[in-house]
Fold:
Amino acid sequence: MSRVRSPYSVKDCRAIDSLRIRARAERRKESSVGNSGAGDGAGKIKILVDNGEYWLRDRGDIAMMVMTVERLRERWPHARIGMLTDEPHILRGVLPQAEPVVANSGGDWGRSGLAGWLEETAGLHVLGPAAMRWRSATEVPKHYLRGAKDWVRKEVHVLSTGERKPEPAGMPDLPPVPGALADADLVIAQGGGYMTDVDLYQAHRTLNLLEAAQRRGIPNVMIGQGMGPMRDRELLRRAAEVLPGADLIALREGRRGPRLLAELGVAADRILVTGDDAVEFAYRLRRPCIGTDLGLCLRISDDFKVSDSARDTLGAVVRREAAELNTSLAPLIISEYDDEDRRHTLPLLAGAVRTRPAIGRAGTAQEVARQVSRCRVLVTSAYHLAVFALSQGIPAVAVTASQYYDDKFYGLADMFGADAAGEGLRIVHLDVDNLDGELSRAIRQLWESAPELRDALQQRAAEQIDANRAGLDRVYGLLAGGAGLPGGSAEPVQGEG
Structure:
């Protein structure tokens, strides 16, 4: 039997030992060490951040996390910022300014003082990078192994009983509210598109957390949210119970979200439209010169079904257009969850005249945004790739195949002033009769108009960045003084007396 190698090299282990030695030398300065990161816990604001990506496999979600934590850290340099996750070592690697609050083991704050500092330092320099390398190297084998184990389990049951088990219905039981909530000073449900029927588990988990915060009198907000579609009766009932009690809900789009929140009973003065949290992340990586590649991403998932004929047509069109435009076809992989981007994008490159290499599995959100910056036009079914493109002044063709993605893309188009004329973001439905012609026309028109669209798109991005920061100013006002511990006279948000 082959052995599974340790994710930590000899060099990694030596680095850990070195950290332990340094820790002994720092023991006498334990109280001051706390200011460097995780902190000694005493006298620090504690901010608990929920999100829609506990597995840290989607670089769009990671980009939002990076911006949220950075902005909070700018305001409260010594706060303890706890990010809920199921991948603590990965989080240390991709988000060193936050500390993991491990959801599947009780969701408590990590150790403080010297032990917390040691964990943070080791996570940043050793454990985080090693965990990312290990997951990158083993993700595909583990994916297929899980599938094989499930198949074997089902077949054994059939052989032993003669009956095939029905697939389980509904969602799994929700976990308890994380223990870290008990002494949190602020709870933030950060950006994402999880408050919808498509992700009932995460939607209910977040609602439970917000409700628990409200019962304890803890300020609670939602930022960068995409709301809906929401037709599930139980989700509608719970949302109507909980969301009106949130101190602030900042939306990433203004086309559908405000109306849905109003129907759920949320007061208008608690609703803001600020744009996506990842806009500033991508905007910072814009290039002074226009790109030359044609970017491509096709994601097929449970909430985005695509027929074989539509997939084949999409591939044929982008290969043909890239050849006729004398440009390279660039595969853009933003999500590693279940290989949903790789499995469906990379085969479309077969037969292309010129292609760019795909990013490695351990690649960062910054690397993907830089790949986008080298494109003149994108064709994408992944929402955050369109965000990355538009924020850098790059037009995109969004292909959609569901109401969920319709809402995402039309809302994004509206935020960038592209809804009416289709300039900047052209939306093409994959079930349209003349898909070949629609796609070709959209790519060609945006390719020709890309230079003229660039400044206007970047200006809309800058406006959303300003709106996003203004929204966070409202959040800061929920804690007295903004830079210290919460007091008894927290500044009310607009509309509250």
Remarks:
- Residues 9-45+77-137+177-184 form one domain.
- Residues 113-161 form the longest helix (49 residues).
